[in-house]
Each structure stands twice: as C-alpha cells, then as structure tokens.
Design goal:
Blueprint lengths: L26 H10 L2 E6 L5 H11 L8 E6 L2 H15 L7 E5 L2 E3 L6 E5 H10 L6 E6 L7 H16 L5 E6 L4 H8 L2 H4 L11 H8 L13 E6 L6 E6 L6 H15 L4 E5 L3 H15 L8 E7 L5 H6 L8 E7 L2 H4 L6 E6 L2 E8 L4 E8 L2 H9 L7 E8 H5 L15 H9 L16 H13 L13 H7 L4 H9 L6 H11 L14 H11 L5 H16 L3 H6 L4 H20 L22 E2 L2 E2 H13 L3 E4 L5 E3 L2 E7 L12 E10 L2 E10 L1 H7 L1 H6 L1
Parallel strand pairs: 1-7, 1-8, 2-5, 2-6, 3-5, 6-7, 9-16, 10-12, 10-13, 11-12, 13-16, 21-23
Antiparallel strand pairs: 3-4, 14-15, 17-18, 19-20, 19-22, 20-21, 22-23
Helix pairs in contact: 2-3, 4-5, 9-10, 15-16, 15-17, 17-18, 18-19, 18-24, 19-21, 19-23, 21-23
The structure holds cytidine-5'-diphosphate (CDP) and magnesium ion.
C-alpha cells in the first residue's frame, strides 16, 4: 500500500473523519445496549462524538423506520442549533430536512426530519400536546450532568412515560462526568432496586451457557432497566497553573494572559472562559486594540466571541481553522465547557466564574449572577486543553481558592423560580407535585412561593388545581407565566395588539439598539431617546416596533440611522406572529388596529379607549401580570421591591435610569458587578397592585 492515501485529500478540512472519533469503536456495543435496555447512560469525554454520532448511528440502525423521530435535547439553545447544523452537514442535507432543530420561537424541522435537536424545555412543552411523546423512538438527554431546571423536570416526566412505553421507547442519557450511577438508579424500577438475595441459587447447565454468552445479565447494576457505557476517549495531560495573588479584574488579567501565551508559548489556539457577553465583548476589543501594537512580523491573534445571541454565521467562525500564521483566541461563556467542542485548543484560560441563576423566594427576585465555579467545572474547563496533545490551563485564581470551591454546582432546580415548571407539570396532569419523581427535590420554600404566585396570577385555584381556561392557556403560551397572564388579560383592557408586541419585544432579551463601534454610542443614545415614551420602557418598545414595521423593515437605511438591530426586530415580528397564532387557537380574536400601519412617525400613542388613554390601559394590563415585580422609587433614585430589602437600580438602558417615578413594574432583573438592575420598567399606580392582585398583597 502506498504511504500516501489519496482519499484523505478529499476529506474537507472541517471534518475529522467520524470513524476516527473515540465513539466509533463502541458503535456495536452502544447499539446493542440501546436495543436491549430501556435506558442507556453514556459517559465520555467531551469531543468523543456523543452528540453528533449517536443520533446518526441510531438512524442508520433503523430507529427511524415507521416514521419515528430521534430527539436529542440540549440545555442551551445555541448548542441545539450549532450541533444540528454540524450533523446536517455530516449527513449531507439541508438543516430542517432529515436533520433539524427546534428551539423556542424557531422551528427548523419538516415532515422529513428524522433527527431533531431541541432544548429540553421545548420537549417538555411538546408533552403538553403529545403526553407520551409518541413521535419519538429514542430520546437522548444530552449534557444531563449540567442539571438544568428543564433537564431535571424532563427526566422525571420521561420516567413516567417510560412506564407507559416500556417496549418502544429508548432513553439515552449523556453525561460528561461521573454522575452516571445516579441517573441509572433514578430510572430503576422497584424490583431492580431490591437487594438480590445472597443465597446461591441452583443453576442448570442451560442457564450457565446462556450466562456466559453476551446476553443481558440481569444482576449487573441496572438490572433490567439499563446499563452504563463509558467511551474512554484519550486525554492528554494538562498542566494547571495558578495565580500567586488573586486578580483584581479577571477580564484584564485574561487579556494579559492571552498576550503572555501569544508571545512566549508555541503555536496552538486559546480558549478563554468568561461569564457573559459584556465581558467577552470588552476582551475581544482589548485584544484587537493591543494586537495592533505587537511587532509587525509577529504572528497575529484573532479574537473571536462565542455566546448565545450571536448570529449563526458569527458562531461558525470559531470552528473554522485560523489562517496561516494566526492564533485563534476564543472568548466563550460556559457553552464551550461541555456542549461545544472546538478543535485545536492547546491553552485554556479560566476566570473561575460562571453566570448562574439564583432565585430568592423571600424577595421573589431571580438574578443571573457571576458565581465561583465548582471543582467539577474547573476540571472540565481544563480538559478542553488536552484533547489533541498535552496542553496548559491558566486559572485566574489562586490554588487555595481552587480548594475552597464547591465540589459540584447546585442543580438549578434548587435555586430557580419554579412557577413556570409547576404550571407545566400541572398542565401535564401531574397534580401532586410533592410526589413527582425529582432527581433532587426542590426546597419547599421555592415550591410554596411558586404556588403562591401562580395562585395570585389566577392560574391555580384554592385547591392548587389548574384553572380553566386561564391556567391551561397560560401553560400553553410560550412565554413565562407573568407575561402569559398579561396576554390573556389584554382583551379586557382593549390592548391585545400592543401587549402582543410587548411580549415579543421583551422576549428578545435586550440588543434592540446596537452600535458597531464606540463612535456610534452617542448616536444610539439619541435614537433611544427618539422612541422614548414617558410611561416607561414597555411603551418605548412598542414605539420602536411600530417604527420598524412601518419603515425599518422596508428601508434598511432607517434601521441604520436609528441604531436599530434589524435582525432582532425581524425576530420580534416572527415571535409576535407565533404568539398571535396561539391566541387564535384559543379562539381569542386579535383585532389589529390601524394604528400599527398608519402611524409613519412612530408617535407615542395617546389614543383613548373608554375614557382611559391607551397608555394607561397597557400599564394596567402589565400590572395584572407583573404585580410581583413591583418596586417603589426612593428619594435617592434607586428602587426597593415590595418585599423590601433589595436595592434595585434602573438599568442604564432603561428610560427610568435618571428620571423620577413613584411605583413601577419591571420585566426582569440583571446583575452586573455587585449591582442589581431592573430592565424594562414601566410606571404604575400603587392602587392598581391591590386592585389586580388582592391576594398577593394580602399575603405579604
Ligand atoms: O458530544 P461530544 O462532546 O462527545 O462530541 P461531539 O460534539 O459529537 O463532537 C465530536 C467531534 O465533532 C469533535 O471532535 C468536534 O471537534 C467535532 N465538531 C465540530 O467540528 N463542529 C461542531 N459544530 C461539532 C462537533
Ligand atoms: Mg456533546
């Protein structure tokens, strides 16, 4: 044989041949286990091929015959899209054909779809319509070790479904770390959990023969329920380096470390873990600026961001090989910790923090806060450097601080607002929440607070039963319960078209106004003011949307001149249409007024309805949903929420940032540094709180 393999030249550089992935040699065994047992737990290093290969193996082995679908769930939307695009490419189809993805408000699947990537939350939602998830022959719960809120709830629901479909449904749980036994034990039936009698039983010759063959051995751990399979991918050693003294500003330290590596260490790409978009944008910019001062003949650095909210094209850059003589530096959120594998990384820089949700049941406020990572996370992050050869990991913290980190991260179910989850479980017919099989039980304070909120919203009655139609409809709408309530009360305030727009706009999570470079910041602020409405941010959003559909959509120049994000606003149009379809399915007519198409100058809307102006109607309607997010402005300009304690600041992007107000309701809370900001804030009257949420304010 020639030592030059011609066919190798024809493998596109992007594709490492799938047959070389560690998972390839486990293919037969994997398929055998999946065929034989209801539950298979797959443990393996990141990058071994679990997410991209298993669904393809299953499809080829016939699990999609008779029109069934293979579902692969992801805790993050970005991961679902990125991975679907990759698998479609490997299969050689367009995304949305044989391979597709489905995330909230974006369904890229068709009747041809056989492999479907979706968020765990969305699969739960599908169970509302198809309680046994009967379209699926195999459901793979990916990244289960991350223990996202929806993953945990999904596992409980799947356990119930499996009891009803023991013969035709297969469940695969993939996990990057060793929580495998916990997952398997969770699915085991009572009989499998019974300790086996230790008395030696008499065996016939026949039984001995069948035992020595490779048939299922029921007294192995997992009994008849399932098995654990490990794909021990090869890992190279990673040198871990710590700081001697803590870093004051880890973003700056990360940037310095990048240049240290770049100037002193051999070739190889760098992966930097930061906590969020703002930090990442700052770091990317700092690298670009300082790179210009490097020696002109030096190798170049190419900083790239990776976080949710980037466009698909932008996300794809991180997978492309860097041009010659260029070192890629990827600044990423936790996405790159396990969900996404980037080849060619030799250096990892770990800031030691991650943004985590934390819900305080006393104040009813959920924040996303930068929190120290766990040891498990730190190990996982370091491992990203040792995939192709020995690498290095720079921890931007001291060794003693590493030792003081918690072993694992607290599962989300123990630190989240559970109202959306309880509403969904109730809608699935699971009334006794206390008896639901949770992998880890949520603290009762969280459960009580959630039930209290759902009751005040009118979704549950005094027996904690779902109300009809309000409760069932709230569960079906793809927005959180508070916004769902607003949508459903909007007809009685004659402002449904407006609330639909507000619901769509707030689903975008910011980035409606954009600037491309610092010089445009001023222009952006001017634009923001142009759309501002005295009443607050919600009506401002409405003004922006109106302007977009009347002018911006047709004249791209208009968006540019007004610093509007064309892509985000187009998404709002699509989300709005989807929400409208939900309402129409409930038989609710959305009477679009002419104001949305004949108001070219995006004037604020002082149209009057029944004596009250439209603005007031909208603000009252918002209060019916967001009463639990009420706050009062203090003389110093900060806010206090109703429960007292928490000091809240109006977000710099909010109209209330430096204006006077009395009482307000807000959509969400964001935490930056050590300040808690409220975003999307609207003025209300104190009296409305008692008018629309008497129970809630009686309870307080
Ligand atoms: O799920 P797991 O971490 O086990 O691995 P995977 O995501 O299936 O990735 C298998 C291989 O595909 C890795 O070597 C990745 O580098 C590659 N891959 C890629 O190049 N681009 C993607 N968008 C996804 C995976
Ligand atoms: Mg994976």
């Amino acid at each position: 044989m020639a030592d030059f393999d011609l066919s190798a030249n024809f493998i596109p550089s992007l594709h490492k041949p799938a047959s070389l992935l560690p998972i390839a040699k486990h293919r037969q065994n994997l398929l055998y286990l999946i065929e034989t047992y209801p539950v298979t737990i797959v443990v393996g290093q990141t990058g071994s091929g679990k997410t991209t290969q298993i669904p393809q193996y299953l499809e080829q082995a016939g699990w999609c015959s008779d029109g069934k679908i293979i579902a692969v769930t992801q805790p993050r939307r970005v991961a679902a899209t990125i991975v679907a695009i990759r698998v479609a490419e490997e299969v050689g189809c367009e995304v949305g054909k044989e391979v597709g993805y489905s995330i909230r408000f974006e369904d890229v699947t068709s009747s041809a779809t056989r492999i479907k990537f979706l968020t765990d939350g969305l699969l739960l939602r599908e169970a509302l319509v198809d309680p046994l998830l009967s379209r699926y022959s195999v459901i793979m719960v990916d990244e289960a070790h991350e223990r996202s809120l929806s993953t945990d709830v999904l596992l409980g629901v799947l356990k119930k479904i499996l009891k009803r479909r023991p013969n035709d449904l297969r469940i695969i749980i993939s996990s990057a770390t060793l929580q495998a036994e916990d997952f398997l034990r969770f699915f085991m039936n009572d009989e499998d959990l019974q300790p086996k009698s230790s008395k030696p039983k008499e065996v016939s010759l026949d039984e001995l023969i069948s035992e020595s063959s490779s048939g299922p051995q029921d007294d192995a751990f997992g009994g008849k329920t399932g098995r654990i399979i490990s794909l021990e991918g090869r890992m190279y050693p990673v040198d871990v380096l710590y700081l001697e003294t803590p870093a004051e500003d880890y973003v700056e330290k990360a940037v310095q470390t990048v240049f240290d590596i770049h100037t002193k260490e051999p070739d190889g790409d760098i992966l930097v873990f930061l906590t969020g978009r703002e930090e990442i944008d700052t770091a990317v910019q700092a690298i670009s600026e300082r790179a210009a001062t490097l020696h002109p003949r030096a190798q170049t650095v190419m900083p790239l961001p990776l976080y949710a909210g980037l466009s698909t094209e932008q996300q794809m850059y991180v997978f492309e090989e860097a041009p010659e003589n260029t070192r890629k530096v990827i600044f990423s959120t936790n996405i790159a910790e396990a969900s996404i594998t980037i080849d060619g990384i030799l250096y990892v820089i770990d800031c030691g923090f991650v943004k985590l949700r934390a819900y305080n049941p006393l104040t009813g406020i959920e924040t996303l806060t930068a929190t120290p990572i766990s040891k498990a996370s730190a190990t996982q992050r370091a491992g990203r450097a040792g995939r192709t050869k020995p690498g290095k990991c720079y921890r931007l913290y001291t060794e003693p601080s590493y030792h003081s980190l918690p072993t694992t991260t607290v599962p989300e179910i123990q630190r989240s607002n559970l109202a959306p989850v309880i509403l969904q479980l109730k809608a699935l017919g699971i009334d006794n929440i206390a008896r639901f099989p949770f992998l880890t039980s949520p603290p009762s304070a969280l459960l009580i607070r959630a039930l209290e909120l759902l009751f005040s919203l009118g979704a549950l009655d005094t027996y904690a039963k779902l109300t009809t139609p309000l409760g069932t409809r709230m569960a079906e709408l793809a927005v959180e319960p508070m916004m769902a309530k607003c949508l459903l009360s909007a007809p009685s305030f004659a402002c449904l078209p407006e609330i639909l727009t507000i619901a769509a706009m707030t689903s975008l999570g910011g980035n409606i106004f954009i600037h491309h470079h610092d010089g445009e910041k001023k222009k952006m602020e001017t634009a923001r003011r142009k759309f501002a409405a005295e009443e607050g941010d919600h009506i401002t959003l409405l003004n922006v949307y109106q302007a977009f559909i009347t002018r911006g959509r047709k004249e791209p120049k208009f968006c540019h001149e007004n610093s509007l994000n064309f892509k985000a606003l187009s998404r709002a149009v699509s989300i709005r249409a989807q929400l409208k379809r939900y309402l129409e399915r409930f038989g609710i007519v959305v009477a679009e007024t002419l104001s949305s198409s004949s108001n070219p100058n995006h004037q604020p809307l002082p149209l009057t309805v029944g004596g009250r102006d439209k603005g007031e109607q909208i603000r009252r309607c918002l209060t019916t949903g967001f009463f639990a997010h009420a706050a009062k402005m203090q003389p110093d300009g900060t806010f206090r929420n109703v429960a007292g304690g928490t000091v809240l600041y109006a977000h710099p992007t909010s109209l209330m940032f430096n204006r006077k107000a009395d009482w307000v309701v807000f959509h969400e809370v964001v935490e930056t540094g050590n300040k808690t900001f409220i975003r999307d804030v609207t003025r209300i009257e104190k009296g409305w709180l008692v008018e629309y949420a008497p129970e809630f304010y009686k309870i307080r």
